């Protein structure tokens, strides 16, 4: 049974319903989300990543620990996420602390990726300068030869992150820009409170 926007008390269930609807209507990657972090210089940074799993414990994505986002999350392990499904006129925003997923979970997800993507994870020094496209392709060829027909293990620097939301806001478009906004805030006892916001 679908969660009702007006009366929902469980934001994770409501998110699951909205994501399911987006999977039917949204072109491209309905699980694409903007990830915002803060650097050591205090400036915010944002990029698109893919949601790979979620439940009541949090929202999971994967990256290279040495990337810009990885370094920022090491210094300040908190972040914000934003989903935007234009086909539905909906957004979901989340904020919370970020931690690493268990290594067994990261291993399992890494193994599910295509072999080319797994080799790419070894070849890319994510976010660092590269002299040319050819240098990247040379690195890919090097690791393709190294692993050959063998299984490609997860690189130690390639890890999973989980954002445990403390706030989740649901937004849906309405006429005259009088949009609906409902924010869920996690309380110390583990329950969510809801508040309707002005557009």
Detailed description of the structure:
The chain starts with 10 loop residues before the first helix and ends with a strand. It contains five helices and nine strands, in the order αββββαββαααβββ. Strands 1, 2, 3, 4, 5, 6, 7, 8 and 9 form a nine-stranded antiparallel beta sheet that branches. α4 (115-123) crosses α5 (133-147). The protein has helices at 11-25, 68-75, 103-112, 115-123, 133-147, and strands at 32-38, 44-50, 53-55, 58-64, 78-85, 90-100, 158-172, 180-186, 192-197. The protein is an alpha+beta fold.
Query: What's the quaternary structure here?
Result: single chain
The overall average pLDDT, rounded, is: 96
Classify the beta-strand content into a percent band: 35-45%
Rounded Rg = 19 Å
- Structural classification: alpha+beta
- Biggest sheet character: 9 strands, antiparallel
Low-pLDDT residue spans = none
Q: How far is the N terminus from the C terminus?
A: 28 Å
The total count of helices amounts to 5
Could you state the order of secondary-structure elements as H and E? Answer: HEEEEHEEHHHEEE
Total strand segments? 9
Helix content: 25-40%
**Structural shape:** elongated
Features:
199 residues; single chain; 36% strand; nine-stranded antiparallel beta sheet; alpha+beta; 5 helices
Strand and helix map with partners:
Blueprint: H1 11-25, E1 32-38, E2 44-50, E3 53-55, E4 58-64, H2 68-75, E5 78-85, E6 90-100, H3 103-112, H4 115-123, H5 133-147, E7 158-172, E8 180-186, E9 192-197
Antiparallel strand pairs: 1-2, 1-5, 3-4, 4-7, 5-6, 6-7, 7-8, 8-9
Helix pairs in contact: 4-5
